[in-house]
Every structure is written in C-alpha cells, then in structure tokens.
C-alpha cells in the first residue's frame, strides 16, 4: 500500500476514467474540477489506511492502482490506535471571505508559489471566536503544481509535531488551490536573519538562533523517524511563532524513503543495493545552495540530503549570510565554500560570527561557537556517509539552545560521530 501512496501524485496527473470514458486519460485540472474537495478528502481518509505502523513490507509495484481508496482496516485496540487528523475542506468563498477577498492590505507574503494572506476563520459557536490563519493561494502558473499540492495536504494531515506548521485546511474547488495554515506572527526566519534590518527590527540574539536551530533539527528528526525526506529546508521555509519557536513549512517536495529490505544484512549493504538498483536519476528539486552535492550529481535522495541542508541553515544562523550571495566578493559568494576554508582552524571561527552580533557585543562564547561550527562542519561533509543523523544533531544543539555558558561548561555535549547512511530514494 505504501507504494501506491508514493505514486499517488503522479496518478492524479494521469488517471484513467473507467466509467463511460473508454480508457481516456483526463488532465489533472479536469479531475480536480469534477471531484472538487471531496477528492482530496478521499486522499486524506486513504492515508490512515495505507500508513500502518505495523506494515512489514511494501506491496508489489506491479499491482494495479485502486480506482478508489482501499477499505480501512478494522480499528486496532484503543491503546495501539494511530490517530491521523484530516485537514478541513473549505470552499473558495469561505476562504475569500476569511482573507478579506484577498485585498492588498491582507497580503503578508509572496513567492514563486503564489501569495499568502492573513485571514480569520470562525473558531467556535460564537461569532466573536475566530482563528487567525495564513491563507496561501497558489499561482496556477507557479512552481507548486497539483502533485505538490496533494503531497503537502497528505503529509501535513499525517504528520504532527510542535516544530511542523499545522495545516488547518485546504480548498480544491475548480482550478483554485489554497492551503490554510496556523498563523505565524513573526513570519519566516529569512525575514529576521537575512533581509536588511529596519530601525524597529530587533537583532536575533545568539541564544535565540541556537533555539531556532534546535527546533528545526527536532522537526527534521521527527520526519526522518517516519521515513520522510523534507528536501526543501531553507530559512524562508522556517516560520516563527511569537516566542520564536520554529515550524517547518512547505512540504510540497517531501518524499517517502524506501522501506528497508528485510534481507539486507546491514544499513550499508541496503544502501549499496539501493544505489545500484537501476532505478534511474530523478529530477533534482530544491533550492540552489542548500542541495547536497551527491544529490546534485546523482539525483538520489537520502536522509543525509536533509542533514546537509541543515548544515547550510546552521551556517546562516551563525554568520547572518545567505547560502548564495552574488553581491559578495569572489570566494565568498558560496557560504559553504567560504566557511569551509576556516573549519580546520578554530582560531578563525570568530570570523564566521554575524558582524551585527559582534558590533552589538552579543557574540557567542568561544566554547559555544566551537560547538556550533563543529556541528555545521559535520553536517556539511562531502561524503554523505560521514554526516551524523539528526538525532545526534538534536542532542548536540540542545546544550547550545537551553544551557547557560556555566552549565555548558560542566555538561559538555557528546561528540558527533558519523553514522551509516540510509538507503537512497531515487
């Protein structure tokens, strides 16, 4: 069943209509228009039946795709039940009213995917009770298509963690594609870290930066524990609540890892067999500057691809620089390339600190800076097998996020060690 789930976005684009169509293929737009929000609702209901924590192996890839979601299995005992909360389906009119008919004064963000508006939805029986939300209206000609839309609704309906953004609902009415998230009062990390500061902007302190890094690492750890590759970690996809706690957002590029083979004797042998299975090169997706080098070369994904992206993000938090900045001098335009020249010399680590922190006399203690740079360097290893897993990164960063300098001195974090690389997903 999990193999059907992985292929589902592609099935939306090319789906055979069996009744009265003579096997004619319909476009994704027609499919969505005919079935409206009920179609995505069926997808979400189906997720609870195909994602089974007790599954031992994947179904045969040659089995026919179901024309409708498979019947739900009998409910497990109450203590063992896995709860999957489905997102709510909204009409376009409901979301237009919630977002003030998408007026300019409601606009809070814009990108290649479309525009994001601040809105309010009824949250109780009384009219005064309202839920503040962010409504993302996808551009029909933007980067995020039908398959990414389905993946995001599906992923965020199944995955729930304090460091993942909460999906309130969606709209798939006609050609309209809208996603409704919980409202993040402080916007994205990019807004606070990488954009030019205004007079009323507060400098992001070192401790806050480490807490953001720790929270993002916890979100990635949660995804990897559930065999999900995020694939698009970057500062603009990390949203901040009013207490600066981070939430990973934008799951349109997320992928499921292949299930490990029971016949594999070790993780390394499983990785070798997966890498040489002849599955072919997939289209490289993500953001330039954050993509792992082996992913760019081969098109094959693993959880270590996310670990590399996290290393780039951690460098951004340390330096206040963008991953790629064409305005900087030669040799400094690539953040990783510039920082890598200093990784081997702890005496130069101070050159990596955001100059704004130094000018405000808020630079990190030398011991904490050494630990942070060390974590980033491990995550950015050229050889993916030498990178740590996110669980080890979370442990290492927890000391920087929560401890004072005194406690950090008496309770040093354990050293990061490379771990076996999980199987690739092509």
TrEMBL record:
<dbReference type="Pfam" id="PF07714">
    <property type="entry name" value="PK_Tyr_Ser-Thr"/>
</dbReference>
<comment type="similarity">
    <text>Belongs to the protein kinase superfamily. Ser/Thr protein kinase family.</text>
</comment>
<dbReference type="InterPro" id="IPR001245">
    <property type="entry name" value="Ser-Thr/Tyr_kinase_cat_dom"/>
</dbReference>
<feature type="region of interest" description="Disordered">
    <location>
        <begin position="15"/>
        <end position="34"/>
    </location>
</feature>
<feature type="compositionally biased region" description="Pro residues">
    <location>
        <begin position="413"/>
        <end position="426"/>
    </location>
</feature>
<dbReference type="GO" id="GO:0005886">
    <property type="term" value="C:plasma membrane"/>
</dbReference>
<feature type="compositionally biased region" description="Low complexity">
    <location>
        <begin position="24"/>
        <end position="34"/>
    </location>
</feature>
<dbReference type="InterPro" id="IPR008271">
    <property type="entry name" value="Ser/Thr_kinase_AS"/>
</dbReference>
<feature type="compositionally biased region" description="Low complexity">
    <location>
        <begin position="261"/>
        <end position="277"/>
    </location>
</feature>
<dbReference type="InterPro" id="IPR011009">
    <property type="entry name" value="Kinase-like_dom_sf"/>
</dbReference>
<dbReference type="GO" id="GO:0004674">
    <property type="term" value="F:protein serine/threonine kinase activity"/>
</dbReference>
<keyword id="KW-0547">Nucleotide-binding</keyword>
<keyword id="KW-1003">Cell membrane</keyword>
<keyword id="KW-0449">Lipoprotein</keyword>
<keyword id="KW-0067">ATP-binding</keyword>
<feature type="region of interest" description="Disordered">
    <location>
        <begin position="260"/>
        <end position="281"/>
    </location>
</feature>
<keyword id="KW-0418">Kinase</keyword>
<keyword id="KW-0808">Transferase</keyword>
<feature type="region of interest" description="Disordered">
    <location>
        <begin position="55"/>
        <end position="81"/>
    </location>
</feature>
<feature type="domain" description="Protein kinase">
    <location>
        <begin position="102"/>
        <end position="400"/>
    </location>
</feature>
<feature type="compositionally biased region" description="Pro residues">
    <location>
        <begin position="66"/>
        <end position="76"/>
    </location>
</feature>
<dbReference type="GO" id="GO:0005524">
    <property type="term" value="F:ATP binding"/>
</dbReference>
<dbReference type="InterPro" id="IPR017441">
    <property type="entry name" value="Protein_kinase_ATP_BS"/>
</dbReference>
<dbReference type="InterPro" id="IPR000719">
    <property type="entry name" value="Prot_kinase_dom"/>
</dbReference>
<keyword id="KW-0472">Membrane</keyword>
<feature type="region of interest" description="Disordered">
    <location>
        <begin position="405"/>
        <end position="426"/>
    </location>
</feature>
<protein>
    <recommendedName>
        <fullName>non-specific serine/threonine protein kinase</fullName>
        <ecNumber>2.7.11.1</ecNumber>
    </recommendedName>
</protein>
<feature type="binding site">
    <location>
        <position position="136"/>
    </location>
    <ligand>
        <name>ATP</name>
    </ligand>
</feature>
<keyword id="KW-0723">Serine/threonine-protein kinase</keyword>
């Amino acid at each position: 069943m999990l193999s059907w789930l992985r292929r589902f976005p592609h099935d939306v684009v090319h789906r055979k209509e069996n009744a009265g169509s003579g096997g004619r293929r319909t476009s994704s737009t027609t499919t969505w228009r005919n079935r409206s929000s009920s179609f995505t609702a069926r997808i979400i209901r189906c997720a609870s039946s195909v994602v089974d924590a007790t599954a031992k192996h994947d179904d045969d890839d040659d089995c026919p795709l179901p024309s409708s979601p498979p019947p739900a299995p009998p409910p497990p005992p109450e203590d063992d039940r896995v709860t999957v909360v489905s997102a709510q389906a909204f009409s376009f009119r409901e979301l237009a009213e919630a977002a003030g008919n998408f007026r300019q004064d409601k606009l809070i963000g814009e990108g290649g995917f479309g525009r994001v508006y601040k809105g309010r939805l009824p949250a109780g029986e009384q009219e005064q009770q309202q839920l503040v939300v962010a409504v993302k209206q996808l551009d029909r000609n933007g980067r995020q298509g039908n398959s990414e839309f389905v993946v995001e609704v599906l992923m965020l309906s199944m995955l729930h963690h304090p460091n993942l953004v909460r999906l309130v609902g969606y709209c798939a009415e006609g050609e309209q594609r809208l996603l409704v998230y919980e409202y993040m009062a402080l916007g994205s990390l990019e807004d606070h870290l990488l954009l030019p500061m205004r007079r009323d902007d507060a400098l992001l302190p070192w401790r806050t930066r480490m807490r953001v890094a720790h929270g993002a690492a916890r979100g990635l750890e949660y995804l990897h524990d559930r065999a999900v590759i995020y694939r698009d970690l970057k500062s603009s996809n990390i949203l901040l609540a009013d207490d600066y706690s981070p939430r990973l957002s934008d799951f349109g590029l997320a992928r499921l890892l292949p299930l490990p083979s029971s016949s594999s004797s070790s993780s390394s042998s499983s990785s070798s067999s997966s890498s040489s299975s002849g599955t072919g090169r997939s289209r490289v997706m993500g953001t330039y500057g954050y993509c792992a080098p082996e992913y760019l070369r081969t098109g094959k994904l693993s959880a270590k691809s996310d670990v590399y992206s996290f290393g780039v993000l951690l460098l951004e938090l340390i330096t206040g620089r963008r991953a790629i900045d064409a305005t900087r001098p030669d040799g400094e335009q690539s953040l990783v390339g510039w920082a890598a020249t200093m990784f081997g010399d702890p005496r130069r680590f101070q050159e990596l600190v955001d100059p704004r922190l130094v000018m405000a006399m808020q630079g990190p203690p030398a011991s904490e800076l050494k630990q942070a740079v060390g974590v980033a360097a491990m995550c950015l290893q050229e050889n993916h097998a030498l990178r740590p897993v996110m669980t080890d990164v979370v442990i290492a960063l927890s000391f920087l996020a929560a401890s004072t300098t005194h406690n950090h001195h008496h309770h040093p974090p354990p050293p990061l060690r490379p771990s076996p690389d999980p199987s690739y997903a092509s």
